[in-house]
Amino acid sequence: MDTSLPQLLNTLEATYPRVRAWLGEERFERAAIRHLEHNPSYAWTHDACADDFSLTLNELFPDRPALLELAWIERAVDNAFVPHDPWPVMPCGLAAINWDTVHVRLAPSLVIAPATTNAADVWSALARGKPSPRGRMLAEPAGLLVWQRGYVSCLRGVDALELEAISCVQSVGSFAGLCAMLAGRVGEEDGVQRAIGLLAHWIGDELVTALQHPHQLNWGPPCRQQSPFPPAVVPPACCRRRCCSWWRVPPWRRYSWHPDAPGLKGWPR
């Protein structure tokens, strides 16, 4: 027997505690062993063994579709801390933006998925220590959002139209493209109003990390860690994790190192 099996089982139990509580310890252990036997670990960390566990559950329990979505939620919530989210956009200063050309950048930690069951309600009840409802199919297709907000993983259910709108922003990026997509679904006037309402909701949920015009798309927003430059000066997008030579330039020269860096009066060039 593989000597690492107990450690891998512990990893699955730690990654999917609510799936284990909802499914039952005996059936969860049987599913976990089946998953580890048919999906050998491909990485040097034990965390990787938790990938695609939801597919194994779907094979073993095809009559419980809510279990598949519950496992997806657990894994997404656990992975929400892996990406490094920049600071979210604040509502102040939005009136000066040219909405015809602006691009919306969403948080890197945001992941989305369609929802056909009440798995989100099951997860919320288990997270609060309350009796969980029975799994059931939703009357209409919906969606799930998982993202990091203030160092806390968040889960929110959305309707199918908002799920499509977020997918549109992730792929197209422009606010005009979002308005065009929604106008094609609910009409031009209602589509624009819905786009404005959704954007306001996303900003309130700290899902939006940048509102940029085309000439700014090569710039990244300030990172969460303490930075040695004022908020008006932003390093290149590739430098947000301190991975290149921008950070090796002395602080008093950083403001002129990048060819597109904005000039500031009083700072040496």
Q: What are the secondary-structure elements, in order, as H or E? A: HHHHHEEHEEHHHEH
How many β strands by DSSP? Answer: 5
Whole-number mean pLDDT: 81
**Compute the gyration radius: what is it?**
22 Å
Tally of DSSP helical segments: 10
Helix content estimate: 40-55%
Spatial sequence of strands, sheet with the most strands: 2-3-4
Q: In what range is the share of β-strand residues? A: 5-15%
Determine the oligomeric state from the structure. single chain
Low-confidence stretches: 218-269
Largest sheet: 3 strands, antiparallel
Q: How far from one another are the termini?
A: 65 Å
How many separate domains make up the residues?
3
Instruction: Give the overall form.
Output: elongated
Descriptors:
single chain; 269 residues; alpha+beta; 3 domains; 3-stranded antiparallel beta sheet; 10 helices; 5 strands; elongated
Structure write-up:
- The chain is an alpha+beta fold and 269 residues long.
- It folds into three domains: 59 residues; 122 residues, no CATH class; 35 residues, no CATH class.
- The chain has ten helices and five strands.
- The chain has a three-stranded antiparallel beta sheet, sandwiched between helices.
- Strand 3 and strand 4 form a beta hairpin.
- Helix 1 crosses helix 3, helix 3 crosses helix 4 and helix 8 packs across helix 9.
- The chain is elongated.
